[in-house]
Amino acid sequence: MITSNKEILLIEQFEGFRPAMYKDAVGLPTIGYGTLIDTVEEQWLKTATITKDQAEVLLRKELGSIERNINLMVTGKINQNQFDALVSFCYNLGSNSLRTSTLLKKINVNPVDKAIKTEFQKWVHAGGKVLTGLVNRRNAEAELYFQP
């Protein structure tokens, strides 16, 4: 599966656009629509100013890796909304967070288990604090996950 255009717009909305590097909630260098500057090839972005189009290219590049990871990790059949909710989750928290989570375990046992909603809501902390933006995002992801 691949990320829907609707989900890309939702990620852009949650992340917001910043044309220059900033530090995210836990102090990591970030640019555009929440793209982490975390590889040697991306170091030039620390001093760059980018356009929305460039930010979307960076976002879509990151989504390719996330899509591959989700397609490998999720063993059961899920629908597009469920996939998109997991893409948003991984874009925000990293694929490793999903890989080691009870959320993934529950999805792989029964992708329609209502307890999955509670698992999304456990991921609302950054820097040791509950962030309202993360609460809102996890609620939106859980709601999207359970849409047919």
Lay out the secondary structure.
Layout: H1 5-15, E1 18-23, E2 29-32, E3 35-36, H2 52-73, H3 80-93, H4 95-99, H5 102-109, H6 116-120, E4 125-126, E5 129-130, H7 132-145
Antiparallel strand pairs: 1-2, 2-3, 4-5
The tally of beta strands, per DSSP, is: 5
Query: Structural class per helix/strand content?
Result: mainly alpha
Overall 3D shape: globular
Q: Tell me the name of the CATH class.
A: Mainly Alpha
Per CATH, the architecture is Orthogonal Bundle
Strand order of the largest sheet: 1-2-3
User: How many helix segments?
Assistant: 7
- The low-confidence runs, each spanning 5 or more residues with pLDDT under 50, are none
Order of helices and strands: HEEEHHHHHEEH
| Average residue pLDDT | 96
Give the termini distance in whole angstroms: 16 Å
Biggest sheet architecture: 3 strands, antiparallel
Radius of gyration based on Cα positions: 15 Å
Give helix % range.
40-55%
What do we call the CATH topology?
Lysozyme
Total domain count: 1
What fraction strand?
5-15%
Keywords:
mainly alpha; 148 residues; three-stranded antiparallel β-sheet; 7 helices; two-stranded antiparallel ribbon; globular; Lysozyme
